[in-house]
């Protein structure tokens, strides 16, 4: 069982049970690219017995970030179950993501699930969707902002609380100096994570390191330079699995003994934890976020149900380390954790 933090334990138990149900069939996934329809073919489609719906999922996914494969698999599984055509699109640039929302509105989709990494840029598009009578669900980013936009449902983790849990763990481990790698400067969920790490790390200090997450060579070169410049750094905190793995490579080119830890996982990260290249990761269950974002819209559209009573539904955080990594290893290989 995963190690959970404080008030999230009960929520994560329920979330794990929900995930176990939807894992009965594996979904398909691809990364990045233009919008595409998913989920109107194959066995089990339409098993909900309700009319066909179209839901757009629009994220701030960066090219090559495998974290979003898990989001999409969860969304596609819910779409199969609910007789939904899923239209997935993404762009890491906030104005472009907002344009994708407007495109979905213009195409008269039945519902929109989106991330709010740049809330101010997304607010007008959200307002347009709601004015058009299209229900909107937020997930993954925008924990503190979704209510102010008039969005009724949110699925994800409180990034500040998750960051604080990381900081507290660093303190417990006796760490003294950490860098927190931000792959997209200014995105609210990433800035909140590092702010939380600083708040929880009472035993030492944290310095943010901004990198270009769309260019792994930039990530590695900046981490290498920082480690060479400051040998007192004993922890490297990454905000995503690909960047943690990049930090492992960067560290290998130096004499640094700093331990690498990270938010979020993928199959390669599970192997890295097993090998000891990464000490631990904190998981927010992205598969579950994608699943609930779509399923909640289906529930609302077909039965006017809402989840969470207007409050955010927490899907994390939970720690994964050598003591429990085997419990999720097979799921990671299947591409659902």
Automatic annotation (TrEMBL):
The entry's keywords: Signal
Domain (Periplasmic binding protein) ranges: 55-303
GO cellular component, one term: outer membrane-bounded periplasmic space
Molecular function as annotated in GO: carbohydrate binding
Pfam families per UniProt: Peripla_BP_4 (PF13407)
PROSITE patterns according to UniProt: PROKAR_LIPOPROTEIN
Localization terms from the record: Cell envelope
InterPro entries assigned to the protein according to its UniProt record, in alphabetical order: Bact_Solute-Bind_Prot2, Peripla_BP_I, SBP_2_dom
Cleavable signal peptide: 1-26
Gene3D superfamilies referenced in this protein's UniProt entry, alphabetically: 3.40.50.2300
Family: Belongs to the bacterial solute-binding protein 2 family.
Name assigned to this protein: Substrate-binding domain-containing protein
Lineage: Bacteria, Bacillati, Actinomycetota, Actinomycetes, Mycobacteriales
């Amino acid at each position: 069982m995963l190690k959970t933090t404080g008030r999230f334990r009960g929520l994560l138990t329920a979330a794990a049970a929900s995930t176990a149900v939807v894992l009965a069939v594996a979904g398909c996934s691809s990364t990045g690219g233009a919008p595409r329809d998913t989920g109107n073919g194959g066995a089990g489609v339409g098993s909900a017995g309700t009319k066909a719906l179209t839901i757009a999922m629009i994220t701030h996914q960066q090219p090559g970030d495998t974290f979003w494969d898990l989001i999409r698999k969860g969304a596609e599984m819910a779409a199969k179950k609910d007789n939904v055509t899923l239209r997935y699109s993404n762009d890491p640039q906030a104005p472009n993501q907002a344009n994708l929302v407007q495109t979905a509105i213009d195409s008269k989709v039945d519902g929109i699930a989106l991330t709010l990494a740049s809330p101010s840029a997304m607010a007008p598009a959200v307002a347009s969707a709601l004015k058009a009578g299209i229900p909107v669900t937020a997930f993954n980013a925008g924990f503190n902002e979704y209510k102010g936009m008039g969005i009724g449902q949110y699925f994800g983790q409180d990034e500040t609380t998750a960051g604080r849990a990381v900081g507290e763990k660093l303190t417990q481990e006796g760490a003294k100096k950490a860098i927190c790698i931000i792959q997209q400067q200014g995105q609210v969920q990433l800035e909140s994570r590092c702010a939380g790490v600083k708040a929880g790390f009472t035993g030492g200090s944290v310095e943010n390191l901004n990198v270009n997450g769309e260019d792994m060579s930039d990530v590695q070169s900046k981490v290498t330079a920082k480690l060479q410049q400051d040998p007192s750094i004993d922890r490297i905190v990454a905000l995503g699995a690909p960047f943690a793995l990049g930090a492992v490579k960067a560290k290998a080119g130096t004499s640094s003994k700093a331990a690498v830890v990270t938010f979020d996982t993928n199959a390669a990260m599970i192997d890295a934890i097993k090998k000891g290249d990464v000490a631990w990761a904190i998981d927010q269950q992205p598969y579950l976020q994608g699943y609930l974002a779509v399923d909640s819209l289906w529930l609302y559209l077909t039965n006017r149900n809402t989840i969470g009573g207007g409050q955010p539904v927490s899907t994390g955080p939970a720690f994964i380390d050598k003591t429990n990594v085997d419990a999720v290893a097979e799921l990671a290989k299947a591409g659902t954790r």
